[in-house]
Heptaprenyl diphosphate synthase
Amino acid sequence: MSRARINQLASKYMSHDMISLHTDLPDFPEGRISLLYTVLSHQPSSASHKELLSVVTTLVQMGLDTHDMVENSPSGTTNGVKGMRTQQLRVLAGDYFSSRFYHLLSQAGQIEMIRRLSEAVCNINQLKMNFYGKLKQMKMNAEEYLHCGAELKSGLFLAFTGVMGGLYERLWPEIVERFSRCEVLMHELAKVEKMSSLAGSWGVWHILQEGAEEDRNILIERGDENQSIQPLIHKYEIAEKLSAHLRQSATQLQVLIQKLQSDNLLRELQPLIEPFVKAGQHRATALKELG
């Protein structure tokens, strides 16, 4: 199944004029959904339901991510009727996607899967509370930030561990966590390359952990200002460090998939891994040329 096909199927259940007219939606979780669909294709017990399970997981993830857009919106965006309507619709959109998930699985008699995914949502919400609490209290370091980000992205997909068989059941949690870690690193690297949304990013936590005292003080006092963060991002070579982490995680992901001892699966998953590998290599090549 192509990414476009997954997107098309899920979009059919997410389409609503009111939502599309008055608010935007988070990015479609194409990578993780494609990973799930491909691995389910190699599971005799769930292969026949792979399309349904991929679509409902998309709906739940989009619901979670849409609600996150409400929680993380700057307070100023809620000013005025238009801003308030956007916020309200994001809440309603998240709830709407979740209701579609319940409906589709109940119609198919997949009651056990409803339970698994619902428990996963509860766990994710608890993780978010702990994560945001640490952020607010400044009780975070760079590795914890990365680990928590990967946990939040992989949490829903861990619900499928119990439907995997044999070696897949043992390796799936590691595979989906490492894949999610690569996604987080790619996202953080994009922030640095675009020099946007740097406040609270991995680079900030790295500098707060490893930087000189005067630089840490700058971030503590003016850490929400991009213009204050940008020089420090260059000084501490944050893009280079993120790129190195990405190369390492992509290599570890490839090793994990090879352990499944399926050439067909490795070949099918390679297009999903390739962007991580290329992103890390591109940065390494650019640095070598500059040197």
Observations:
- The chain has two domains: 1-109, 123-291.
- Residues 1-109 form one domain.
- The chain has a mean pLDDT of 87.
